[in-house]
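User: quick one, sequence for these tokens?
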């Protein structure tokens, strides 16, 4: 370990390569678990550099696997790295890394979907929401089937300032299928604009910072991979509960190719649909003939604010589900038909 002036920099000692670790511990990727590993340490260094300055940081790495990104994080002069890995086969290899970086690497054999990071790091790291982000970072290359539900869960945590965001505006650097990374960062009017774009962008500054070709992974996935950086905003662009925003956005994108009034109409029971949809759009000052992809975050802000008022006036509105109504209507029709048939 080298010391220069008052700044001491940490470098891992020479270690077997990730490829050798995979051989040594027989860590063949399990296809069903979508395990694709990054073996090129120049690439993992690049991902970690894009996460920002990690000097003295506390980092939470999700899904470290054989430890490529883990090594790059350890070499970035962090104070502590906590990794959570579900597959027990990786634990011995990670233990070897921990021995090479004494006191720096904490290994948890667990599931990121349930692990409580809010108690893992020192209280002293906590910053007020309005302050600069704390020196806490989340980094991970997870299977795509985990990273999308996880980001939805973490966005809800951002809106409630809980989970990983009890420390303040914790930054996240995560990989997604390239198409999902494009949706997360898509601007108003673009082809990729979707529910995910609005949900991410009303709460965070979202940047697609890197694209990694599928061939960089072993085994090679069928798609390229996008690395996305999230910094929670000081003030969310929509100041309403997450579940309310999610409901409005989800309904708006219900019929992607139709005018937005079609999807938004599904927020209301059939008997009042036309009238309430008109009221919502008029009060929110949104053109009913815009397509869902043409709605900006500020359009959604107005829609959510008006919808909130309508729900306050009629609390049943918030629990209304058009699919339920459709199902009930279908079974009523079926009953009526059966009765008529038996009368004939
Ligand atoms: N980060 C490594 C890399 O870049 O080479 C491994 C990437 S591999 C795509 C995903 C890793 O996440 C695997 O090690 C897998 O076992 C782990 N994983 C999958 N689901 C997980 C979960 N729910 N909680 C924790 N780890 C998980």
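Assistant:
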């Amino acid at each position: 370990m080298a010391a220069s002036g008052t700044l001491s920099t940490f470098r891992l000692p020479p270690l077997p390569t990730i490829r050798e670790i995979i051989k040594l511990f027989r860590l063949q990727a399990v296809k069903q678990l979508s395990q694709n590993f990054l073996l090129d340490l120049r690439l993992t260094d690049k991902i970690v550099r894009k996460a920002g300055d990690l000097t003295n940081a506390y980092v939470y790495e999700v899904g470290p696997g054989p430890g490529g990104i883990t090594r790059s994080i350890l070499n970035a002069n962090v104070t502590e790295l906590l990794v959570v890995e579900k597959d027990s086969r990786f634990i011995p290899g990670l233990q070897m890394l921990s021995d090479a970086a004494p006191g720096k690497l904490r290994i948890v054999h667990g599931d990121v979907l349930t692990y409580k990071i809010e108690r893992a790091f020192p209280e002293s790291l906590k910053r007020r929401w309005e302050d600069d982000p704390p020196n806490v970072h989340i980094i991970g290359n997870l299977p795509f089937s985990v990273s999308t539900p996880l980001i939805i869960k973490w966005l809800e945590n951002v809106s409630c300032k809980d989970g990983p965001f009890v420390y303040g505006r914790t930054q996240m650097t995560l990989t997604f299928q390239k198409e999902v990374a494009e949706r997360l960062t898509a601007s108003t009017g673009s082809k990729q604009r979707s529910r995910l774009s609005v949900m991410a962008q009303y709460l965070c500054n979202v940047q697609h910072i890197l694209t990694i070709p599928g061939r960089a992974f072993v085994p090679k996935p069928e798609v390229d991979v996008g690395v996305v950086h999230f910094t929670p905003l000081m003030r969310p662009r929509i100041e309403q509960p997450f579940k309310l925003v999610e409901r409005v956005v989800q309904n708006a994108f219900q019929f992607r190719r139709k005018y937005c009034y079609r999807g938004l109409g599904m927020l209301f029971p059939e008997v009042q649909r036309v009238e309430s949809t008109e009221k919502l759009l008029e009060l929110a000052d949104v053109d009913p003939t815009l397509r869902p992809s043409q709605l900006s975050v500020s359009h959604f802000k107005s829609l959510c604010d008006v919808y909130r008022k309508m729900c306050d006036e009629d609390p049943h509105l918030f629990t209304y589900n058009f699919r339920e109504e459709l199902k009930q209507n279908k079974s009523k029709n079926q009953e009526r038909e059966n009765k008529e048939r038996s009368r004939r």
